[in-house]
Amino acid sequence: MKLAKLLLLFCLWTISGNSAIAETTIYRFDKLIDGSGALLPERDIAVEDGKIVAVGVELDQKLDGQLILLSGLTALPGLIDAHTHITYGLPEAPKGAAWAELGAATREDRFEASKHNALLTLSTGVTSIRDLNADQNLDFDLRDAINKGDVVGPRIFASGPGIHPFNDPLPEGIEEASASFLREAAQKRIDAGADWIKIFGTTGSADDLTSRAYYSAAAVRAAAEVAQAAGKRITVHSYGPEAVDGAIAAGVTSLDHPVGMSRRQLLAMREKNIIYVPTVDHNRYYAHHGKEYGYGDDVQANLHVFVGRNIESVRRAQANGVTIAMGSDAVMTGFGQNTCELRAFVAAGLSPAEAIQTATVNGAKLLGKEHELGRFAEGFLADIVAVSGDPLTDINALVSNVTVVIKEGQIVLDHRRDPAAINKPDCGTLY
Predict the structure, then answer these.
(1) How far apart are CA 295 and CA 149, in angstroms?
(2) Cα angle at 14 between 8 and 15, to 5 degrees?
(3) Phi and psi (nearest 5°) for 87?
(4) Between helices 138-148 and 107-123, what is the axis angle to 10°?
(5) Given the DSSP bridges, would you call strands 79-84 and 126-131 parallel, antiparallel or unpaired?
(6) pLDDT digits (tens, 9 = 90+) for 318-348
(7) From CA 337, how far away is CA 314, in angstroms rounded?
(8) Which phi and psi angles does 197 have, rounded to 5°?
(9) Per-residue model confidence as pLDDT tens digits over 231-277
């Protein structure tokens, strides 16, 4: 009897599974903008099993499936935020000492806040993130919960704790981290389940705008070699040029934050296909939200100065052919403002189409997912963000008008009936 029931359940599961696989959904928009930044002649996207099976015109005349009209909206591939801290969150806005408050928060409160940050991230049209430097396995647990469908949020590529003197204290009596020390540190992350290896090459973060090297070039190379052997990608945090040469020599995937790079360094990055993640806007965010962090007027002024230096570095990187990817460096109340970074890129001289590339095809390249994400093409994951307005003429149409978000073919956010609910980030003043 039990066997008969199991067979019946198996048959029912097989039938339902096969019908789900065969089911086609056709989304029709007014316009499609590909991750290349090009306006496509098509306006229909057909989806099966979470992937794009066709892009065309009047696909309902050629394919059997459900037609969903998204009139008045322009579709772009789901965006990629290449630098977040999604587990840095509190049950409510910080009260003036954000970092201390985060340190005192329970793991449970932080995980709940992380789930809220995930929803806010989706509200910006971001469907994939690279999360860098988390503790207590919060990023791994959130990643896995989202992958299982238990939590709604962007897919996460997580690093766990970055390699940093705080996370990896040296043995007593040792003053400099050796190559073997960083090799072991990288292996520890790989064994724990990290998708990425993050190395803090220098000081610098939040109100600390310094850039003093933590590790030798040889040590960085050793960690990179371990990661590369395991098929992992590597990023190096450098607030200035101090860790750039070592990162380039190590053949890392990306460099995050650096300002003031020389033309020689920029050309070397281009030659080695190392992607630049500038994180311009996060310093504007810290200045704009200074009271939450206890940052005084002097700190806020310095942060705005750093924004200017960063914008100039983006301008020079673009002029020298370096690939740029969008990374918000979002923390705390910065979620929901992820795409303010696109506005900073336009201020640095990128066209709206080029800014769109940073958050789509360039982000996909950084993740090693250029055949899955960032484009509207057959076989790609059906991640779609639909906006009102024309992002090719005004990037704010993408920053402030996200109306529908589709992840793997399923609508996960829909504000068509409630435009007042559309996320309108306060991106403040850059300078």
Answers:
(1) 39
(2) 90
(3) -90, 0
(4) 50
(5) parallel
(6) 999 999 999 999 999 999 999 999 999 999 9
(7) 20
(8) -110, 120
(9) 999 999 999 999 999 999 999 999 999 999 999 999 999 999 999 99
Do 220 and 227 touch, CB atoms closer than 8 A? no
Cα distance between residue 416 and residue 13, in whole Å? 34
d(CA 404, CA 385): 6
User: Tokens 């793991």 map to which residue?
Assistant: 107
pLDDT-derived band at 9 (thresholds 50, 70, 90) equals: very low
Q: In the numeric block, which tokens belong to residue 131?
A: 């999360």
State how beta strands 254-256 and 275-277 pair. Answer: parallel
Residues 310, 345 contacting (CB under 8 angstroms): no
What one-letter code names the amino acid at 302?
N
Q: Are 220 and 313 in contact (CB under 8 A)?
A: no
Pairing of strands 155-158, 25-33: unpaired
Kindly report the number of other CB atoms within 10 A of residue 14's CB atom.
Answer: 10
The tens digit of pLDDT for each residue in 378-407 reads 999 999 999 999 999 999 999 999 999 999
Which residues are paired to 157 by β-bridges? Answer: 130
Helix axes 297-319, 263-271, angle to 10 degrees: 60
Tokens representing 406 are 């589709």
Instruction: Pull the structure tokens for residue 75.
Output: 């579709």
CB 85 within 8 A of CB 330: yes
For residues 186-197, average pLDDT: 97
* Distance, CA of 311 to CA of 337 (rounded, Å): 18
SS3 percent helix, strand, coil of the chain, rounded to 5, is: 40, 20, 40
User: Which helix H or strand E contains 72, and what residues bound it?
Assistant: strand 66-77
What are the strands, taking DSSP E only, across 155-272? 155-158, 196-200, 233-237, 254-256
Q: Assess contact for 254 and 276: CB atoms under 8 A.
A: yes
